[in-house]
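Researcher: We plan to redesign the surface later, but first we want a full-length starting point. Tokens attached.
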């Protein structure tokens, strides 16, 4: 490696490292603001919050790395152009490709490193981050219980409170607890209380709420229809009552291995295995649906040419006695409605399974697309910086922001189209890179041939040609 390569590498790495740190911090703050109301003032230890932010920081690297490469490239080659260092290189017979040779090699290594990081580090960070949130929820029961919003995290119950107070927000007011555990067919039992105190008991295996000045309302479900029409119910009041919710899902043990993984917590091998499993499940469910549906629609054909069947009417309802026709019609309507609801439920299930299938494939391709996007951003930033010949932070920052927004919008749009099966999932994952790759090639060609696309010369030539054509006409 000669002095030129060392100088170019040093000039590129010097702004790259702080830029990556700043971009990671910027995207991390967006995630922190999402949970700021739940994390602040909950008595959570500072080192737990730092650990959680460390896991979140790993997950934002795919957003921060491409824009950092673009900004560092623009800044480096913009400074080269402004201080006539690029002109000195070219006057010495050094081409653009020779000048950026060391950076091309470096960015190839960065691209492979980005794939390794996305494939091996980020899934683990996502898994541990989600597990840590569960542990925080266990140790701080008020973490997910939001005032004014129903909380359904306890099996068989729905909880809504008016306000949370106290040092750890354990004091509750305006409490409503709907008990679905016994009936599971609507709100037949509800507990209300003016205030309460929430705490964990029995070695944090239960969440206990001490209720004050409340009442219990319960519908009495009768089997007899006439009794049901009377709508009987019972009410009982209390000064103090206790209710416990099991926290089996929030164990004190390390949940890193017991937490169910989703598509963002899997590497490429696990994603391929999961997509294969989901595909088999879809085919199995489709076969079961077809078999079940055939059993719901059975027609017994009668040979009308022999025996008593010859006198049957083609209108089947007329073959029944008048007293049976209404019952038969009502039964057919109930059966049709039941079958329609079954079909709708199966449709929702299949749509969910297919969406999960697409999400896993999108995540699989995104791991490879990150490395490609790093190279594309470099080949956009390096030649563009040499073309504009403008150093400093201002212009590179503006161009980087605009380019990243375009890239992010393309990624988000096509990912959604692939997830909703409006486009092939492979094409949806790679189309943003395919759109920006010609731009990178055009800029690289323009910079290597000293054609200033941004100077306006091409526009002046075009207008002069149009003026000449109008004059001759």
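Model: Full-length starting sequence:
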């Amino acid at each position: 490696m000669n002095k030129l390569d060392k100088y170019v590498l040093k000039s590129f790495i010097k702004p790259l490292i702080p830029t990556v740190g700043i971009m990671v911090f910027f995207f991390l703050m967006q995630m922190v603001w999402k949970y700021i109301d739940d994390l602040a003032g909950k008595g959570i230890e500072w080192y737990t919050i730092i650990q959680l932010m460390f896991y979140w920081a790993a997950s934002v690297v795919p957003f921060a790395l491409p824009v950092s490469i673009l900004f560092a490239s623009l800044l480096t080659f913009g400074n080269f152009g402004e201080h006539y260092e690029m002109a000195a290189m070219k006057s010495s017979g050094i081409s653009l490709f020779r000048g950026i040779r060391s950076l091309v090699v470096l960015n190839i290594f960065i691209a492979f490193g980005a794939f390794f990081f996305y494939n091996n580090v980020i899934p683990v960070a996502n898994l541990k981050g989600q597990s840590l949130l569960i542990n925080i929820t266990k140790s701080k029961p008020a973490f997910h219980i939001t005032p004014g919003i129903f909380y359904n995290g306890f099996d068989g119950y729905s909880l809504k409170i008016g306000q949370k107070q106290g040092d750890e927000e354990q004091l509750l007011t305006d409490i409503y607890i709907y008990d679905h555990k016994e009936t599971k067919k609507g709100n037949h039992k509800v507990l209300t209380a003016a205030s309460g105190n929430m705490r964990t008991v029995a070695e944090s295996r239960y969440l206990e709420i001490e209720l004050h000045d409340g009442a219990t309302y319960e519908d009495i479900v009768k089997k007899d229809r006439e009794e049901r029409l009377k709508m009987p119910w019972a009410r009982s009041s209390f000064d103090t009552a206790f209710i416990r919710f099991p926290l089996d899902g929030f164990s004190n043990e390390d949940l890193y291995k017991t937490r169910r993984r989703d598509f963002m917590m899997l590497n490429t091998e696990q994603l391929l295995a999961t997509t294969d499993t989901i595909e088999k499940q879809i085919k199995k469910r489709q076969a079961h649906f077809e078999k079940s549906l055939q059993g719901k629609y059975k027609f017994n054909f009668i040979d009308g040419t022999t025996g008593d069947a010859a006198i049957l009417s083609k209108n089947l309802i007329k073959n029944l006695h008048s007293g049976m026709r209404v019952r038969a019609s009502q039964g057919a309507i109930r059966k049709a409605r039941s079958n329609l609801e079954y079909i709708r439920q199966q449709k929702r299930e299949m749509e969910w399974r297919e969406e999960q299938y697409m999400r896993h494939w999108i995540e699989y391709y995104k791991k490879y697309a990150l490395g490609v996007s790093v190279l594309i951003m470099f080949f956009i930033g390096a030649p563009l910086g040499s073309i504009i010949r403008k150093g400093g932070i201002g212009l590179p920052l503006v161009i980087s922001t605009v380019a990243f927004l375009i890239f992010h919008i393309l990624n988000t749009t096509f990912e959604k189209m692939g997830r909703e099966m409006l486009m092939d999932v492979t094409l949806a994952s790679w189309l943003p890179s395919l759109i920006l790759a010609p731009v990178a090639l055009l800029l690289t060609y323009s910079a290597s041939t000293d054609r200033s696309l941004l100077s306006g010369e091409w526009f002046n030539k075009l207008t002069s040609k149009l003026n000449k054509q109008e004059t001759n006409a």
